[in-house]
Amino acid sequence: MNLREAEEKDFEIIYMMGYDAWGDGLSKPDYLLNCKSSIKYANGKWYVLENDDKVLSSSLLIHNLNHLNCGTGLEIRGIGSISTPIHLRRKGYGSNLIEKTMSYINRDIPIDIWFLYSDIGADFYNKLKFEALPNNFQKRTSSLLMAYCQRNTWDINTNAPQIEIPNYF
């Protein structure tokens, strides 16, 4: 499996990976139009995992959240819009993509804190060493805010962070 940045030709496929989860009853053309005009989608960097036949098996969006570091100098990123086509789910592609993307980005810039909002509960992300933030840091009832922190950066369960907690991204 190959990790790469998404290209313009990939976006319709990427957007449709999440249609069943985020389509909200829209027709496919209307859903695609919403995705194409989304500021959230335009403000991040998309990564895809593809097989040897160049078939995309999973995608995600990385957001630079350094504006939340309150002058601490911490490098903060958010992972969002993680999706895999229905017929390829439960084969490890999502986990593989997350691990490869984090490793790839950490080569150039060591990231101190990775955030994500889980719409599927904690179990999947716990296996990747993400931890749910305590209830007093949660900002949504429909999604669980989780973080992966480098050692000695922030003990999620015992220390109040010296950063802003991100809104849904």
Quick structural summary:
By secondary structure, the protein is α+β, with helices and mostly antiparallel strands. The chain is 26% helix and 24% strand.
Q: Count of DSSP helices?
A: 6
Percent range of helical residues: 25-40%
N-C termini distance: 27 Å
CATH level-two architecture:
3-Layer(aba) Sandwich
Q: Give the averaged pLDDT, no decimals.
A: 92
Sheet with the most strands: spatial strand order: 1-2-3-4-5-7-6
CATH fourth-tier homologous superfamily: Gcn5-related N-acetyltransferase (GNAT)
Strand percent estimate: 15-25%
Beta-strand segment tally: 7
Oligomer: single chain
CATH structural class: Alpha Beta
Shape: globular
Structural class: alpha+beta
Please trace the helix and strand order, writing H or E for each element.
EHHHHEEEHEHEE
Provide the number of structural domains. Answer: 1
**Biggest sheet, open or closed, and with what strands and sense?**
7 strands, mixed
| CATH topology title | Aminopeptidase
